[in-house]
Amino acid sequence: MIDKRRGELYRNPSEGKIAGVCAGLADYFGWETWLVRILVVSGVLLGMGWFVVIYIAAWFILDKKAGTEEVCAKKFKRKAKQQNDCHEEDIANESIKVKSRIWQAGEPPKQAFHDIRRKFKTLEKELQKIERYVTSPEFTVSREINKL
Fold first, then answer.
1. Cα distances (Å, whole numbers) of residue 93 to 16, 49, 120
2. Separation between Cα atoms, residue 29 and residue 17, nearest integer Å
Protein backbone atom coordinates (compact mmCIF):
# COMPACT_ATOMS: atom_id res chain seq x y z
CA MET A 1 0.00 0.00 0.00
CA ILE A 2 1.33 3.41 -0.96
CA ASP A 3 1.32 6.17 1.63
CA LYS A 4 -0.61 9.12 0.15
CA ARG A 5 0.41 11.60 2.86
CA ARG A 6 3.05 14.10 1.90
CA GLY A 7 5.45 15.75 4.25
CA GLU A 8 7.05 19.12 3.85
CA LEU A 9 9.04 20.13 0.79
CA TYR A 10 12.79 20.24 1.40
CA ARG A 11 15.98 20.26 -0.63
CA ASN A 12 17.87 16.98 -0.45
CA PRO A 13 21.54 17.85 -1.18
CA SER A 14 22.82 14.41 -0.19
CA GLU A 15 20.85 12.86 -3.09
CA GLY A 16 21.05 15.83 -5.46
CA LYS A 17 23.50 16.79 -8.18
CA ILE A 18 23.54 20.61 -7.88
CA ALA A 19 21.49 21.79 -4.92
CA GLY A 20 19.09 18.93 -4.25
CA VAL A 21 15.94 20.70 -5.47
CA CYS A 22 14.98 17.95 -7.94
CA ALA A 23 15.75 15.26 -5.34
CA GLY A 24 13.55 17.09 -2.82
CA LEU A 25 10.70 17.34 -5.32
CA ALA A 26 11.07 13.65 -6.11
CA ASP A 27 10.89 12.77 -2.41
CA TYR A 28 7.85 15.00 -1.96
CA PHE A 29 5.86 13.49 -4.84
CA GLY A 30 7.19 9.93 -4.42
CA TRP A 31 8.79 9.84 -7.88
CA GLU A 32 12.19 8.76 -9.08
CA THR A 33 14.78 11.55 -8.99
CA TRP A 34 15.88 10.91 -12.58
CA LEU A 35 12.33 11.58 -13.80
CA VAL A 36 12.15 14.98 -12.12
CA ARG A 37 15.58 15.88 -13.51
CA ILE A 38 14.50 14.92 -17.03
CA LEU A 39 11.32 16.99 -16.70
CA VAL A 40 13.26 20.07 -15.52
CA VAL A 41 15.96 19.77 -18.19
CA SER A 42 13.33 19.14 -20.89
CA GLY A 43 11.43 22.20 -19.74
CA VAL A 44 14.55 24.36 -19.94
CA LEU A 45 15.53 23.00 -23.37
CA LEU A 46 12.01 23.44 -24.76
CA GLY A 47 12.05 27.13 -24.11
CA MET A 48 10.71 27.38 -20.59
CA GLY A 49 13.69 29.30 -19.25
CA TRP A 50 11.70 30.37 -16.22
CA PHE A 51 12.42 26.84 -14.88
CA VAL A 52 15.97 28.04 -14.20
CA VAL A 53 14.66 31.03 -12.23
CA ILE A 54 12.28 28.78 -10.26
CA TYR A 55 15.11 26.29 -9.56
CA ILE A 56 17.41 29.02 -8.27
CA ALA A 57 14.61 30.50 -6.16
CA ALA A 58 13.83 27.06 -4.71
CA TRP A 59 17.54 26.63 -3.96
CA PHE A 60 17.47 29.71 -1.73
CA ILE A 61 13.93 29.35 -0.32
CA LEU A 62 13.76 25.65 0.58
CA ASP A 63 15.46 24.39 3.72
CA LYS A 64 17.80 21.42 3.65
CA LYS A 65 16.26 18.10 4.59
CA ALA A 66 16.86 17.31 8.26
CA GLY A 67 19.67 14.83 8.82
CA THR A 68 21.58 15.47 5.60
CA GLU A 69 24.52 16.97 7.47
CA GLU A 70 24.82 13.88 9.66
CA VAL A 71 24.69 11.60 6.61
CA CYS A 72 27.49 13.55 4.90
CA ALA A 73 29.55 13.58 8.09
CA LYS A 74 29.14 9.83 8.45
CA LYS A 75 30.17 9.27 4.84
CA PHE A 76 33.42 11.20 5.05
CA LYS A 77 34.63 11.07 8.67
CA ARG A 78 34.27 7.44 9.72
CA LYS A 79 37.16 5.04 10.10
CA ALA A 80 37.21 1.65 8.39
CA LYS A 81 36.03 -0.38 11.40
CA GLN A 82 33.35 2.12 12.29
CA GLN A 83 32.14 2.07 8.68
CA ASN A 84 31.54 -1.67 8.85
CA ASP A 85 29.67 -1.40 12.15
CA CYS A 86 27.55 1.52 10.93
CA HIS A 87 26.97 -0.18 7.59
CA GLU A 88 25.48 -3.23 9.31
CA GLU A 89 23.39 -0.96 11.53
CA ASP A 90 22.19 0.98 8.48
CA ILE A 91 21.19 -2.26 6.74
CA ALA A 92 19.19 -3.39 9.77
CA ASN A 93 17.37 -0.05 10.07
CA GLU A 94 16.71 0.70 6.40
CA SER A 95 13.21 0.49 5.00
CA ILE A 96 12.61 -1.18 1.67
CA LYS A 97 10.11 0.38 -0.69
CA VAL A 98 8.92 -1.58 -3.69
CA LYS A 99 7.67 0.44 -6.63
CA SER A 100 4.67 -0.65 -8.64
CA ARG A 101 5.13 1.85 -11.49
CA ILE A 102 8.33 2.89 -13.21
CA TRP A 103 8.16 6.56 -12.19
CA GLN A 104 7.54 5.87 -8.50
CA ALA A 105 10.35 5.97 -6.01
CA GLY A 106 11.49 2.62 -4.72
CA GLU A 107 13.10 -0.55 -5.94
CA PRO A 108 12.07 -3.14 -8.49
CA PRO A 109 10.68 -6.28 -6.81
CA LYS A 110 13.74 -8.41 -7.66
CA GLN A 111 16.14 -5.89 -6.08
CA ALA A 112 13.84 -5.53 -3.05
CA PHE A 113 13.92 -9.31 -2.56
CA HIS A 114 17.75 -9.29 -2.54
CA ASP A 115 17.76 -6.37 -0.09
CA ILE A 116 15.34 -8.19 2.21
CA ARG A 117 17.58 -11.29 2.15
CA ARG A 118 20.63 -9.15 2.98
CA LYS A 119 18.70 -7.47 5.80
CA PHE A 120 17.65 -10.81 7.30
CA LYS A 121 21.23 -12.13 7.10
CA THR A 122 22.46 -9.04 8.97
CA LEU A 123 19.76 -9.42 11.60
CA GLU A 124 20.61 -13.13 11.94
CA LYS A 125 24.26 -12.21 12.67
CA GLU A 126 23.14 -9.71 15.32
CA LEU A 127 20.87 -12.32 16.91
CA GLN A 128 23.74 -14.83 17.00
CA LYS A 129 25.93 -12.27 18.79
CA ILE A 130 23.21 -11.69 21.37
CA GLU A 131 22.70 -15.43 21.90
CA ARG A 132 26.45 -15.93 22.29
CA TYR A 133 26.59 -13.25 24.97
CA VAL A 134 23.50 -14.45 26.86
CA THR A 135 24.82 -18.00 27.01
CA SER A 136 28.33 -16.94 28.04
CA PRO A 137 29.71 -17.05 31.59
CA GLU A 138 30.37 -13.30 31.32
CA PHE A 139 26.63 -12.66 31.17
CA THR A 140 26.00 -14.88 34.19
CA VAL A 141 28.65 -13.08 36.25
CA SER A 142 27.35 -9.69 35.18
CA ARG A 143 23.79 -10.65 36.12
CA GLU A 144 24.88 -11.89 39.54
CA ILE A 145 26.80 -8.67 40.21
CA ASN A 146 23.76 -6.60 39.26
CA LYS A 147 21.62 -8.57 41.72
CA LEU A 148 23.82 -7.46 44.63
1. 23, 42, 11
2. 18
Q: Where are the domains of the chain?
A: 1-77, 79-148
CA distance linking residue 59 with residue 9, whole number of Å: 12
For residue 136, the tally of other CB atoms under 10 A from its CB is 11
Query: Which of the pair, 9 or 99, is modelled with greater confidence?
Result: 9
- C-alpha dihedral, 42 to 15 to 106 to 125, nearest 10°: 160
The pLDDT tens digits for 83-139 are 444 455 565 566 666 666 666 666 777 777 788 888 889 899 999 999 999 898 988
3-state secondary structure of 104: strand
